[in-house]
Amino acid sequence: MTELGVEQLAHVYPEGDVRALDGVDLHIAAGERVALIGQNGSGKTTLVRHLNGLLRPTSGRVLIDDTDAARLTVAQLATRVGLVFQDPDRQIFAGSVRAEVEFGPRNIGRSAGELRNAVEVALEATGLAGEERTNPYDLGGSRRKLLALASVLAMRTPVLVLDEPTTGQDARGVERVRSAVDAVTDEGRTVIAISHDMRFVAEAFDRVVVLRDGRVVLDGPPDVVFGPAAWEVLASTYLEPPLAAVVGERLGAGSTPTDASLVAALGSWSAPPEGDDPGDEDHQHA
Amino acid sequence: MAGGDRLSDEARPARGIPPSLGRPGPTAYHRLNPLTKATLATVTAVGAVVLGGVVGPVGLVVVAVLLPAAIAGVLPQLVRTGLLLSLPIAISAFVVNLFFYPGAETVLLRIGPITATAEGLAFAIEILVRILAISGAVTLFYLTTRPSDLVVDLERRGVSPRIGFVTNASVQTVPAMVDRAQQITAAQRARGLDTEGSVWRRIRGVVPIVGPVILGSIAEVEERTMALEARGFTRPGRRTLLWSPSDSRTQAIARWALVIGLAATIVARIAGFLG
Amino acid sequence: MTVSLRSVGYRYAGASRPSLLDIDLDLRDGEVVGVAGASESGKTTLALVVSGIAPRTIGGQIRGKILLDQADVDDWPMHRLSERIGIGFQNPATQLSQVAGTVFEEVAFGPMNLAIPRDEVIDRTWHALEALAIDALSERDPRHLSGGQQQLVAVAGLLAMRPEHLVLDEPTAQLDPAGTRLVADAIAALAADGVSILVTEQKTDLLARIATSVVILEAGRIAMRGRTGDVLDDPRLEELGVAETSAGRLRRLASAAGVGGARLEAALR
Description:
The complex is a heterotrimer of chains A (286), B (275) and C (269).
Chain A: E1 4-13, E2 18-28, E3 33-37, H1 44-51, E4 59-64, E5 67-68, H2 74-77, E6 81-84, H3 97-107, H4 112-125, H5 141-153, E7 159-163, H6 171-186, E8 190-194, H7 198-204, E9 207-212, E10 215-220, H8 222-225, H9 231-236, H10 243-250, H11 259-267
Helix pairs in contact in A: 3-4, 3-5, 4-5, 5-6, 10-11
Chain B: H1 4-7, H2 28-31, H3 34-50, H4 55-72, H5 75-100, E1 107-111, E2 114-117, H6 118-144, H7 147-156, H8 161-189, H9 199-204, H10 207-229, H11 249-270
Antiparallel strand pairs in B: 1-2
Helix pairs in contact in B: 3-4, 3-6, 3-11, 4-6, 5-6, 8-10
Chain C: E1 3-11, E2 20-27, E3 32-37, H1 43-51, H2 53-56, E4 61-68, E5 71-72, H3 78-81, E6 85-88, H4 103-113, H5 118-131, H6 147-159, E7 165-169, H7 177-192, E8 196-200, H8 204-210, E9 213-218, E10 221-227, H9 228-232, H10 246-256, H11 261-267
Parallel strand pairs in C: 3-8, 3-9, 6-7, 7-8
Antiparallel strand pairs in C: 1-2, 1-4, 4-5, 9-10
């Protein structure tokens, strides 16, 4: 299983001399679920494009399992790191769902048997089973986004990177994305997602990395990154914690980044927070 | 009624258009009406070709290109840009005529099989001066006039706003398509599309890129059209202009004088008066 | 002014099935109507039909009647309708005219097209910029603004045409959180000022904040409608593919676990 290392990564875009990444250090172990958040322009997209070689470092390096990514072509890196772009219409080209999903795994040299299996599993995971012969443009925008996801899922790369997977998705679409992410990490594969949806981030990821001006300013589990102690830093990136965290803080329930954790905290309360042991007695807060 | 009325409860002092709109140029030449400057550029370019000999075109360059450029303070830029643009053509035209002028007899220089002739040199100089005149006139126009100012001025005179709009919009389509193509290429490469292999592979690789580029560009045109229509763009007839470049009777007379002068020169040339 | 849809249906050009069926809807002065629904339920189509873009600009077949204060607008050309109903779209960049070097000219674009006298164009433009609190951006190049700012410019451009109704189709769909907040705040301010708005949105939190009533679409038909609070708290939302509001979800999970109550309510304010 694949480990990713980013060491002192800096990237300057030649036009306008923009320093998009300014010394980023990250280590991502196999099987981690990492969310990358930050304002537009903070460097999130620039960072993930270094993971599959679409961008090359101005300084610093990217390591894929101890190999410097600079030594590998984008096509070679595509076998290790799959990247799903935000806009499915800047990717979908085939006349059928099946052909679209087969494109990726075929490019990276999967055998016919592997191909068939991978495509089936990917379509199942994204709720598109049965649509093999449908023209992608006969699917709605939400399902086309799932199709783009399926087409990279089918590549079965050890690392999967998602750029804004839930933006523009309806409620069912978000569910599908979450279960697809679960399926991938259940196999021990790594998932990295850029997202603006703080609730999705808090609920579906074990690690949150916050970028600002090309640097990592926070890196930890959701209850730390969305905990009250981190709010000032979060505000400096124009991000807001999920509602559950805000409500939890108002109620003095500590750090409750997810709805579930807030409910659990409320449930375990027996008295106002004046030093009583939680769970001492059973008080019903009706 | 939505918006406006409820928000303008007290009388407000009337505000004008923001200062940067229609800001007059830094020099008197800049402030000339764009049509005047365009007329000058055209008459100079055509006139330089029509006038025979060398003295005429050189005089034209001095009076109609270099002098205004000096007044407008763009002389150094003009020389740099004008020369740069015309150099390739100028040099090749010069060399071709110097060495290969047909029917020449007076030999100046021999380099192996090719010969430089005096007649060739004379003609080469004539061509050179004309090329420099044309490039100088056009460059002067671009250095002192915003293209949008010319479009607005033409619209004020009755040209349909749609023409200006179409030219503007067409020009901007290309960078947008290039940008789209780059993003699509990135997405396909991320799925293993090989853009660094053999020529044949690269040609095949065009298919997953061209489709989305075209479809996407068409979809974008549709979106833009809807947005424009929602803002009354399809209303026939003229529209209000916030600002247009100033003009004067003097300039109008000058424009006509230039055009008539050019016409007279052409007639004279045809009739053989200018040799 | 009331916009009324009576039994309206619409089929896109070349489509085998209609995208809207049997729509009966009234948009009254000062109301903010939110439209929610799963992807492809007809939200965008409804926006296009109400504003007249469908069928005038994009073709297709329309059934039923659309009335503006009882007047049938069937034969009104688009530019005439655009003075009464303005429509804003999702993509901030494609709404720019591309012929305006400054935000001021961009916002003035609509009134200029309508051949309104110059002084009034200028007046309306400043009012629209101030209504969206972007008068400080008046001399900036609209192409260099953030997505959220561009959306505000687009809405200002619509307001400058003094429409009686604004239709906004998922105005925050393509914006980051900062942009979403910027646009949501601006729309809330307009709504508070009495501007009539029809807004389609996936973000039910946004609708909860600004809409007076909500309509839920399913497969091109109205599946549910009513006051915002009633509709967004209805348990049938899930089967209609509409997300619960964040507060609603918290309340539901808390009450299922037997906790929360008054304290939770207070903290949710």
